[in-house]
Write a structure and sequence with these properties.
Length: 250
């Protein structure tokens, strides 16, 4: 039985003051969150602060990215061991903003995924198609290639301790959510592709949906057979909205 996983990706937002009140708000509502695993992914510089703010709670910590190398001359990067030292459990890799704004290829994303695993972090592998790719009818081809790069480097066994986030790029930060049926179709494709390699891993892996999830649409999305929670951007910056999403699985 898969558990619902809701992760808030704060992106490059916040200040010491605002993250304190955001975490305060989320903590206050956590008693109302049943059977959902909750994660927050702050900007890297705030990870130590958030780690101490969530100590003793059920909220887990994740990073928004991770260096593909373990240590050395990689200016501006953050190593998996450093994230682990501050209590991170998850590392997002291949977010569409990293792919499109910073030119991260499928191969580099796969290396970041591998680095997360070496550090003992659970990678949250983001995949998803652009609007023009959906319109061309090549969504499965695009998502399939994004998965293949990781499968080639790390193998199907690595997915026993990984999370996949299907995030159609046209739905991220746009207010345009994929319909539950549109999302379910791609989630089912991902699970079936993995099932071709290992049925147990495919059955157990958590596949989140991401793209303009809000309290008002989370129940319907998370109710679909192959949707196991969400990766949340904008709505994760508002404690009440984020909690409403976390409570959608109740
Ligand atoms: C995201 O950044 O992963 C995301 C899904 O953003 P939003 O919820 O704002 O669409």
């Amino acid at each position: 039985m898969r558990r619902i996983l809701v992760a808030g990706n704060w992106k490059m937002n916040g200040s010491i003051e605002s993250i304190k009140s955001l975490i305060d708000g989320v903590k206050q509502g956590m008693s109302g969150v049943k059977s959902t695993d909750v994660v927050v992914c702050p900007p890297a510089i705030y990870i130590p602060e958030v780690a101490s703010l969530i100590e003793g709670t059920a909220i887990a910590l994740g990073s928004q990215n991770i260096c593909d190398q373990d240590s050395g001359a990689y200016t501006g990067e953050v190593a998996g061991s450093m994230l682990k030292e501050y209590g991170c459990k998850y590392a997002i890799v291949g977010h569409s903003e990293r792919r499109s704004l910073y030119g991260e290829s499928n191969e580099l994303v796969a290396k970041r995924y591998a680095a997360a695993r070496r550090a003992g972090l659970t990678p949250v592998l983001c995949v998803g198609e652009l609007l023009e790719e959906r319109e061309q009818g090549i969504t499965e081809e695009v998502v399939g290639k994004q998965l293949d790069a990781v499968l080639e480097l790390e193998g199907i066994a690595s997915f026993a301790d990984a999370v996949i986030a299907y995030e159609p790029v046209w739905a991220i930060g746009t207010g345009k959510t994929a319909t539950p049926d549109q999302a379910q179709e791609v989630h089912a494709f991902i699970r079936k592709k993995l099932a071709g390699l290992d049925a147990t891993i495919a059955e157990n892996i958590v596949i989140q949906y991401g793209g303009s999830v809000k309290g008002s649409n989370a129940v319907e999305l998370f109710g679909m057979q192959d949707i196991d929670g969400g990766l949340i951007g904008g709505a994760a910056l508002d404690a009440n909205e984020f909690l409403a999403i976390c409570q959608a699985a109740n």
